[in-house]
Design brief:
single chain, alpha+beta, 8-stranded mixed sheet, 3-stranded antiparallel sheet, 13 helices, 43% helix, elongated
């Protein structure tokens, strides 16, 4: 959530940057400032009313002590009026503050100056590419056909048990999944991230804290009876570890990693591009999160990008990095880099990771602060990234490593799988 002082002091900049998202935010920003002015006016009036009431109460006490009961009783009528006025002002202040917050919840984060303007993913900027695209043998198959051929993923069984988008991994397919999770966690902990095992459901406050709620696109699975939500990513429970926390400056930076299943309704996702592992309702992902000093968060973002690079280089998968344009930028992000690997069998790029800096947007919702060198509380910056999401990494391995004799396991994973080929 944007901070009101920041909006007041940078009105034109906020409107200009939000235009990169193809949003004309002029009216919303003007409304925020107007609501805030009303809130301040009511707060001042309430403070003055309470101060006058307190002054009269002291005076009444003195009058009673001095035996001037008649004068004291006259003033008591006035304090009664002031108490009623303060009650009305408090209600008006709460209503105005709630209306202001409701409006702020609708405004996305301000894009960083590096974010290119654009309408869709076609306007994203490629900033890096590495790896050779393999030349496959004649008759090479997409991963959903390979999964059936080698009996390692059963999409039809998942459909029977639950529905489309809930695959069942079997045999070497399940072991390869487990190997990837262990490998990703080992890489992350070796890089200094502390491993956490996190809840798979969160409460409403956690959803609001990281910006998944209000759920504008209806993508969260909601357990209505308990008012809990299945997590769409480990970012949500992981970042909420620090909700309502005041850190010391020397606690920073903080880095954590965790594996969780992720649950997304993916409403409105249909067509050939969602076949197989390309888009699922339940999938596994290993996440990295950071809490950073504002002066160091973009250096940390670069470090996270380089970390994911090393993983893909070890997996020997061809990939590229995109800087997302305003029209493709997530609601809470100030700057995002997407990693995509090339699926040779599908002849297209598949997104496998997003690495983002949210600056103070999440921290303001979370009330995540640190005590700076001047002893004052300051909002921290939060960052997160997939390291990595498994479905499309697995799809890329199956497709790009396929041979006539079977699917070769990347060398770096063979110690984890215990086998070198799926045949």
């Amino acid at each position: 959530m944007l901070q009101v002082p920041f909006i007041r002091e940078n009105k034109e900049l906020v409107i200009e940057r939000l235009a990169k998202r193809n949003i004309d935010a002029t009216q919303m920003i003007n409304d925020v400032i107007a609501f805030d002015e009303d809130r301040r006016r009511i707060q001042t009036e309430l403070d003055n009313t309470l101060a006058e009431s307190n002054t009269l109460s002291k005076e009444i006490g003195n009058l009673f002590k001095s035996g001037e009961a008649q004068k004291a009783n006259l003033l008591k009528e006035k304090t009664g009026q002031l108490k009623e006025a303060s009650k009305e002002l408090t209600e008006a202040l709460n209503n105005k503050s709630n209306a202001l917050n409701e409006l702020l919840y609708k405004i996305p984060n301000v894009p960083n100056e590096l974010v290119p303007a654009g309408n869709s993913d076609s306007d994203n900027e490629e900033v890096f590419k590495e790896g050779d695209i393999p030349v496959l043998h004649e008759g090479a198959l997409p991963h959903w056909e390979l999964a059936k051929k080698y009996d390692i993923i059963d999409f039809e069984l998942g459909n029977k048990i639950t529905g489309a988008g809930f695959p069942v991994y079997k045999g070497k397919g399940a072991r390869l999944q487990r190997a990837l999770i262990a490998y990703f966690l080992d890489k992350n902990t070796a890089a200094g991230y502390t491993e956490y095992q996190l809840p798979h459901l969160v409460n409403e406050a956690s959803g609001f804290g990281t910006g998944q709620l209000p759920d504008k696109e209806g993508q969260m699975y909601h357990v209505t009876e308990d008012n809990l939500y299945l997590i769409p990513t480990a970012e949500v429970p992981g970042t909420n570890i620090f909700r309502d926390v005041v850190l010391n400056e020397n606690d920073l930076p903080i880095g954590i990693t965790g594996y969780t299943p992720c649950f997304r309704r993916e409403a409105g996702s249909y067509g050939a591009h969602v076949r197989g592992l390309n888009r699922l309702h339940q999938f596994d992902k290993v996440e990295i999160l950071r809490v950073e000093h504002p002066s160091k968060s973009y250096e940390a973002l670069d470090g996270m990008v380089n970390h994911v690079k090393t993983i893909l280089k070890e997996l020997e998968l061809p990939y590229r990095i995109l800087r997302l344009c305003g029209g493709d930028l997530g609601f809470t992000s100030a700057l995002t880099y997407d990693f995509e690997l090339f699926s040779t069998a599908q002849d297209k790029w598949l997104e496998i990771s997003s690495v983002s800096n949210f600056e103070t947007f999440q921290a303001n919702r979370l009330k995540l602060r640190f005590k700076n060198s001047n002893g004052k509380n300051e909002l921290a910056h939060t960052l997160n990234g997939s390291s990595l999401a498994l479905p499309r990494v697995l799809a890329g391995i199956l497709e790009n490593y396929q041979t006539k004799d079977g699917i070769v396991i990347p060398k770096v994973l063979q110690a984890y799988t215990g086998f070198s080929i799926i045949d």
